[in-house]
Amino acid sequence: MVVFVLRRIGIILLTALTLSYIVFALTNLPSSLGKLAKAEGSVRMSDEEVARWLDENGFGGSMVWRYGEWLGLAPGWTHTDEAGVTRGRCLEAVKTSDTPDAAVSEYCGILQGYWGFSTVFKQPVSEVMARSLAATGWLMFWVMAVMVPSSLILGVLAGMREGSRTDRALSGVAIVTTATPEYVSGVVLIALFASATAGVSPVLAEWGWISGKTLFPGTATSAMEKITFMNFFLPVMTIALYGIGYIARMTRASMTEVMTQQYIRTARLKGVSFRQVVMKHALRNALIAPFTVIMLQFPWLLNGVVISETLFNYKGFGWTLVQAAGNNDINTLLGCTVVAVLVVLVTQLISDIGYVFLNPRIRLA
Amino acid sequence: MMDVLTWGQIFTRILWQLLPVWGALIVIFTLSIAFKRRLGLYGRIFDSTVGMIGFALVMFWVFIAFFADMIITHDPYSQVSGMKNILPGMPVKNVKEGVYQWYLLGGDHLARDVFSRAIMGAREVLIIAPFATVVAFMVGITLGLPAGYLGGKLDVGLSFGSNLVLAFPVILLFYLLVTPSVQESAIPTTFAAILFLFPILFLTLLFNSRYFTNKAQRNLYVGIVLVFGLWAYSGLAFNADPLGVWSMSPNILNVFVSVVFVNSPGVFRIVRGMVMDIKTRDYVAAGQTRGEGIWYIMLWEILPNARGPLIVDFCLRIGYTTILLGTLGFFGLGVAPDSPDWGSTINYGRRLLAIAPHPAIVPALALMSLVLGLNLLADGLREESLKD
After folding, report:
1. What is the pLDDT of residues B175-208, one digit of tens each?
2. Does the predicted interface ipTM exceed a cut of 0.90?
């Protein structure tokens, strides 16, 4: 078990390293760097001036070397101009940190805890990431709190009696929600509940049931300060809907399979009530597969988070990623990649380990 | 001045506009149901209600894309003054003779007809999604078969590569691959050069292993594949077709390549898993004893026996690709600003949701119904193929 986990962690680190290098290479394309130079310097720079600016700001040298600087395996760049003022990666790192007077070290990459400086947010990337991850953490928490129980209940209810009317109705709902990507469900939800001209809001407003113009607000910006049911309901539902259908279908499939097992029939024939059979005999075995599915849903949830945060203007991880990618903010993008990839891989690892604990028939070498 | 249409009138007029689609659907359903016993797996779709509903939804959109020029009421790109964000069923102002007199589903933020744009959007999606999925399948199959069958270092390497892509958040990948600066670089062409090679490779291996003993026939089939394949390849990947028949705009190529790239690792995984299961069967051992070549065993013994789950996955994956294309449009990646594709229409429409929801709702429901149809069709196929 320990060997298995260690090997998996090794693969995770290798994957994160490879992917971060790919992102590094793709964000450091010569044309993107040219744009960056013109944005930071001046728009009317000639090609030679751009090349000099890049050289003086640590973008010269080979790609591998600069990646090493970012990682903290190669010494950070320094440049002293004609006036004798020295600038450098590590000087910036110290200047933007909480202790601007600390000694400047030679190495300063993510291994030393310096994630670089964001060109879009004008802040150290670590601060940007901490803020946005906290915001997204709450979103994810509520999505999980809504998605997991409801999808498991739906799936178990549908799979309890295969082919019954409940099963057909619930499966119908599930298949519709899995066909609804987040940008569709988000738009439909806003039109239904947060539009002053369509959906239920105008009717409710006319009856005097709601004080404002719309039932729910169309943005979740206010949730950055205080999360309430009103400002968080739509973004959470936008993400959760797709997952509810998907997990419910998996739970149903697993439940129907368990319900045809011999031991369920034996229990029924011994006179145990249907309710008891479902709760005591079927449920635990039926929930192994959905557990894995829920864990493997994380990469998709990450997509949902990006769309939902963009749609509702909630400044979390997804919103940050879109801003960084749209403006070629190299350091922030790299930070986002590392975090996203680690989340995906760690959840995969948890799902593998959890599977072993839930299913005693499986042993890992 | 014409009257404003009621919802009932709008509905009948849309049904009327879609007349060619209904005709084609009726023809295809009567023919298919009449001959369903002779049509194999395709015919068995008509035994399951779910499958039939799914098939009807998918064909509905396919025919809409096909007859789009006949169905649209206005030019999807032209703007009519005074029709900005106009509600569904409003008459067109200062209408000329011979022009359709209403905006059936209203106008968008640039005063274009929402109905015609949604119809044209179907064409955008249905041109790219199925072909991208086919290419992704050929890449996945060509790599997954040897990885599963031979195992060893090849399997370890390819699996690591596919896990790399699968661990990447799709949206981040799109933001990195579908940008103007990437489009200027050689990356899309390189990707296209590699990925488009796989269909040719797949078909060549397929025919070469099948007709290996009959040289004349083999040379004919492989020759045809190579001539047509390389001709299309030169045009699609390098935009260097000497006859100018095959070409792809850099925008579309970029989108196409990224979608294929995102999809193929998933196909690879499924194929690899199934091959590892099937290769232990007796008929594979029998083939090995007969001295069949490995590509013959993989392509003609194993692959046909894996077709059921692959066909189901193909349907689901076209749906997934449709969602991905919508995502790209939603973030404004790789599409022309005035493109009528559903994703970017939703993106422009969402900013005005509070006052005029229809420009976003119409393409949103269109996209949903197409994906729903594909999912239902996959469900029906799965049900029917399990009955064997």
Report:
1. 888 877 788 788 888 999 999 999 999 999 999 9
2. no
Range of the domain at A88: 2-112
Whether residues A201 and A284 fall in one domain: yes
Nearest CA in chain B to A317: B172
Q: Per residue in A236-267, pLDDT tens?
A: 999 999 889 888 988 898 888 888 889 899 99
Q: Is B368 on the interface with A (CB under 8 A)?
A: yes
- Our separate counts of H helices and E strands in chain B read 18, 2
Report the CATH number at residue A229. Answer: 1.10.3720.10
| Residue A19 forms contact with B (CB below 8 Å) | yes
User: How many separate domains does chain A show?
Assistant: 2
What is the count of residue pairs from A and B with beta carbons less than 8 Å apart?
141
Asked if A109 contacts A73 with a C-beta cutoff of 8 angstroms, the reply is yes
User: Would residue A104 count as lying in a domain?
Assistant: yes
User: Residue A122 falls within a domain, yes or no?
Assistant: no
Query: If you write DSSP's letter for every residue of B148-190 in order, what string do you get?
Result: HHH-HHHHHHHHHHHHHHHHS-HHHHHHHHSSHHHHHSSHHHH
Q: What global pTM score does this model have?
A: 0.89
Distance from CA of A202 to the nearest CA of B (A): 11
In this complex, do B355 and A18 lie within 8 Å of one another by their Cβ atoms? no
Number of Cβ atoms within 10 Å of the Cβ of A278 = 21
How many residues in chain B? 388
Question: What one-letter code names the amino acid at A60?
Answer: G
Q: Are A192 and A152 members of one domain?
A: yes
Cα A30 to Cα A25: distance, rounded to the nearest angstrom: 10
